[in-house]
Amino acid sequence: MKKFAKRLLALGVAGVMALSLAACGGGGSSAPAGSDSGSTGGGAAAGGEKITLIMSQRDEFLSSLEAGALAKAKELGVNLITQDANSDQNKVVQYVQTAAADGQKAVIVNVVDPTACGSVIEAAGDMKVVFVNRVPDDTSILNENAVYVGSDEHTSGKFQGDFLAKYFKEQGKTDIKYILLNGIIGQTSTTLRTESVLKALADGGINATETTAPLACMYDRAKAIDMITPVLSDKSKEFDCIISNNDAMALGAIEAAKNAGLDPSSFPIVGIDATADGRQAIKDGTMAMSVFQDPNGQGGGAVQAAVNLINGAALNEGTSFDVDETGFILWVPFEEVTPDNVAEYDNR
After folding, report:
1. Phi, psi torsion values for 332, nearest 5 degrees
2. CATH number of the domain at 154-292, please?
3. How far apart are CA 26 and CA 71, in angstroms?
4. d(CA 218, CA 224)
5. Structure pTM?
6. Phi, psi at residue 75, to the nearest 5°?
7. Over pLDDT 90: what percentage of the chain?
8. What are 177-192's pLDDT values in tens digits?
9. What CATH code would you report for 31-151+294-333?
10. Closest C-alpha to 72, from 31, 44, 46
11. What whole-number distance in Å separates Cα of residue 2 and Cα of residue 261?
């Protein structure tokens, strides 16, 4: 009886501590940009698995991905700790090492440099690794202990190219000039988004030539404004559309066009991500279309994948997503967003 009473007392103390921690936790909110401190998803079950999510940075899309991960962690009773690497790959590795030293069984990583994923796996040691959103430059490093959760970038640009091909054909145009806003040069997503949109245009019977060399805007809205303003202000530069590797840069192009006295609704500007601001621009008629990249699907899918790896379950167990032929990639599909269906994505 005494042993039983002691066990009840211990459980009661543990319960009080758990409630206290829950009251002081982050409750699923994101830490401020630039913060090195971790935020813990509230509602984790006592004794739940602890997993670290390492963010390369926090823009609108990645912040939504983080929120999706925290929501899924709460649902699964996982204690999810998030860290912001502030675009520093060395910090990514340091946070992985910290998680390993803490005895965690899995880590989720949104890398700064997709060419450095090998060093992440090495730093992880015996931990399972889930790369999210930014695919490793060399996918042959993926295996039963290191997987990827994200969207197939071959299809993102294709949606843009197919839309533009149809748009210009309806205008009776087969020869066009475009301005291209690139993300981070050398990053797989940038390369594939660019290649796939140009291929889709060509496949659609459109002869597309560049007005100027691609503008490297680093997926950043302010950078896009700075880079495209001189082009839009030069009346000798003719163009029929603006193609952007993401919504943030497309929104920068819209602002720059207005500042240059141009009507952004008079020519198609296309983006990728279908962020809240991007969707509003589509509703306003200043952005022609975007491509929905599901942040909740990627963030939540990454947490589910980490739990599945720990439990030895199938990678896509608990999700509606498909696994590629290797079994090491969980695909979260892209979807076309236009004025006809944009309202459907407001609660996604």
Report:
1. -105, 110
2. 3.40.50.2300
3. 12
4. 8
5. 0.75
6. -65, -40
7. 82
8. 999 999 999 888 899 9
9. 3.40.50.2300
10. 44
11. 82
